[in-house]
Amino acid sequence: MSMSNPGIPSSTEITEISFENVKKKQRVKSFTKGMLFLLPSIVLFGAFLFYPLFKTMYLSFFLTNARGETTVFVGLQNYIEMFTSPIFHQSMKSTFLFVLYTVPTTIIIALLLAVLANEKLKGIGFFRTIFSSTMGISVAAASVFWLYMFHPSIGFLNQILSLFGVESIGWLTDPKWALIAVAVTTIWMNLGFTFLVLLGGLQSIDSYLYESADIDGAGYFHKLRRITIPMLSPTLFFVITVTIINAFQTFGQIDILTQGGPQNSTNLIVYSIYREAFTNYQFGTASAQAIVLFIIILIMTIIQFKLGERKVHYQ
Amino acid sequence: MGYIELMDISKSYNKQRNVLNGIDLQIEKGEFFVLVGPSGSGKSTLLRMIAGLEEISGGTLKISEKIVNHLPPKDRNLSMVFQNYALYPHLTVEQNILFGLNAQKVDREIQQKRLEETAQMMGLNELLKRKPRELSGGQRQRVALARAVVSEAPLCLMDEPLSNLDAKLRANMRIEIRRLQKRLGLTMVYVTHDQVEAMTMGDRIMVLNDGIIQQVGEPIDLYNKPSNLFVATFIGSPKMNLGKAILEDSNLIIENVLTIPFEHLEMPKNLKSRNLVIGIRAEHMPYGDENQQVQNVEIVNVEHLGNETLISFEVGTELWTAKWLGQWLIQVGDKVPVHISVENMCFFDEDTGNLIQEATFTHKQEVVRR
Amino acid sequence: MTMPLSKKIVFYSLLIISALAVFAPALMAFVMSFMDNKDIMTGSLPKSLSFDNYLKAFEQFPLLKYLFNSLIVSVVITIGQLILSSLAAYAFVFLEFKGRDILFFLFIATMMVPFEASIIPNFHIIRDLNWIDQYPGLTVPFFATAFGTFLLRQNFKQIPKELREASQIVGMGDFKFYLKVVLPVAKTSLVTLGAYGFLTSWNMYLWPLLSTTNDTVRTVQIGLKQLQTQEQLNDWGVIMSGAIIVIIPTLILLFLGQKQLQKGLTEGAIK
Ligand SMILES: Nc1ncnc2c1ncn2[C@@H]1O[C@H](COP(=O)(O)OP(=O)(O)O)[C@@H](O)[C@H]1O
Ligand SMILES: [Mg+2]
């Protein structure tokens, strides 16, 4: 009696065929629904990201008129010119130097601040707010602040120098110093974001790790090196790549502080693209530079995904 | 014709190994039907196929004589209670209860009327304005039930609705759900992994293991006549004692250590010269007195349950447990006489695990029918 | 466990010194914005503080107009991002359909394309659409965001699937479920993303610089650049008052939502 088998009706085959139809229809319906939800994003990504990217590649093989319309196909000529141009060499050199100046410094300072701000002290919230505040300060405002700091006569930095009897520095006019000045501004601007992310990483470390270290009698710096830094590695990794990518995309500081000068020493790649395209109207060579930028960022992102997945231990 | 009919239903995820195989089943109208089995056996999958939340890979499903394989859940006229209750955290109890009626655009007045009735019935009147996070586990459970009740769907599906409650509350809710189902005349399909819940609540029970139906029947039948070794050990607590056995002369030799005479009983022919596994329930091994044949066993563990005592002893490689009424002051290591009789034994085929012959004794005495 | 007093003193001194160092540029700008130009030029300490610079900034520049434009642009971008990324995240979490994984990869791929690398054709598109000096030109290109989609996706994934199933049983469609359940339940992460979106749009620089040629829709960031380059007398007090006005909205937002943002950033980015 237990395994009652009520015999399958002979109509099963017919009904099964119609089930297949229904299933197919449902599949089409769920596909349509999914696409409808995604369509707005896909359309906009297509129009303002993917299509322009391919258009950039296309443009990079042409000469253009001032309206950006293609005139003559020149093949790889734009690339050849670009790679032989001393100005572009200077631009690439400055860009990589800039990355080198800003990334490690930003992260080290932000990490120190985050470690400080992770202590459970009274009023720590106030300090956290201060440390993260530069995230709310726009490029334009930050650049204006530092424009004053770097001012040759009344600027704060040179005033301090003169207190010590040091000769004033042409922060923004001396090719030796301009890139450093822009880097300092950038480091300051990025501190807030980097600090906030690192603090988040620190706070997600389980406190029992520290408690057991306390029981073992480990000192402050021992704990920092043996627990904090290793446990923070996924966050650090993320922050490093984001800061590098950001550094390659620097524009606003340059536009306000130096306009790429003096002697092209701060003509970083995005500024170079901007100048080539929108003041020289050389859209072809500008596009070739944009493709270089794209490839650099692409490599960085792929590294982030590839290494990130393996090394980073997700919580 | 049953109210729900499953014909040769099977299920596979992503074209892999079947999670359910050849499920044939009828559930009657107004029946409290329990699906029980260990975790991972496919109970939820089966229930969700009935609900329409999971695509049916093969076979036919009928609800009230209509094929519903292709219908979405809302066209199957049923309600469902989930293990985690699935209450909407941003809505009040009232809004949660009315959620379905709102979605179905039921008239406001009717909504209010049904809300009042349901809240009254489930004792939720005081809680209507609260959010789910302001409720205790038991109260959330009630709201989930109220949501099923208010829908007035004739079929209610529940997936382990009590497993998040503590033991005492669970016992209360069992009775309450049972009463609710009878009172509203619901057809209930109830999933649980807890055999006690299944035994105490179900009109009929289906035991599922590894995607295959093991047995379908009334609780008592499952207990007395488990159709295979799986059901024998799954249903009942403590579980049925098992031992390998063979027939020799007119004796039954269990695990090579116990020799039990058939006495005046006739030896069934179908048991001869096969490898057997015998099963005997704990309560069928009483303290042996002089008039009976007894086995002297050494106690390895004693558990006092209050008015009952569990005594464990070794039979070959198996650990058997006997349940004696009353409080027995026995020490581990004591030797005690136990009456073990063939007439209380179920016989299974060792190779297939299937029941060959049920215990004969139970027919005579224990079942009280009125 | 409480810290010994000596250690506390060390920590507080470090905190105060670094807070001063970090905040110094903004603090100086803030003080300067109330200072007389003579005091600034001679580098002396402020002798008197007044709102004159602010009045001048508002008089000489259409700052209010800029602020209004920035507000419109930021709010529109924020709303657009919230709508588009919540729709997309819903599809990735609650809908199952063929091609979903490919589309998900497409979203990841967008993170590899910097906006700056496609800025030339983008400018031409906007120009050809006659969207230069128009709000749509400043906003529409930023509606779709992979970061926002991922952040919301992480959050939607924490909504129990049973909620959707319970709504399916009563016959509620996907769009209604998205509106009535998912959005309200995920309110906090929507607020986080909204704050982040507002912050970044308010601070946008390169694109508004390109796509505005006059004051009609020019945002306050570009306005600040105008202020800085056109201020012939080099009146630092006025420039700084402009800069302070620019940062006040975002600073307030940051102070209010710092905890939320911190959580959101770590969630959307790292997990
Ligand atoms: N969505 C799914 N995809 C793949 N396998 C699944 C899915 N859901 C359940 N399973 C598998 O189906 C089997 C039965 O699961 P389930 O019905 O949830 O069991 P039960 O409810 O009895 O514990 C399990 O082995 C489980 O791993
Ligand atoms: Mg289950």
Spatially, the strands of the biggest sheet of chain A line up as 1-2
Number of strands of chain A: 2
Overall body shape of chain B: elongated
Radius of gyration of chain B: 25 Å
Q: What does the overall shape of chain A look like?
A: flat
The percent of residues in helical segments of chain B reads 10-25%
Number of domains of chain B: 2
Largest interface: A-C, 98 and 94 residues
User: What is the name of the CATH topology of the largest domain in chain A?
Assistant: MetI-like fold
**CATH structural architecture of the largest domain in chain A:** Orthogonal Bundle
Give the ligands present: adenosine-5'-diphosphate, magnesium ion
- Approximate strand percentage of chain B: 25-35%
- Terminal Cα separation of chain B, in Å? 27 Å
Fraction of residues of chain A in helices?
Answer: over 70%
> In the CATH scheme, what's the topology name of the largest domain in chain B?
Rossmann fold
The SSE string of chain A, one letter per element, is: HEEHHHHHHHHHHH
What's the mean pLDDT score of chain B?
A: 90
Distinct helical segment count of chain B: 9
Pfam family, one (chain C): BPD_transp_1
Keywords (chain C): Cell membrane, Membrane, Transmembrane, Transmembrane helix, Transport
Main location (chain C): membrane
Domain ABC transmembrane type-1 (chain C): 67-257
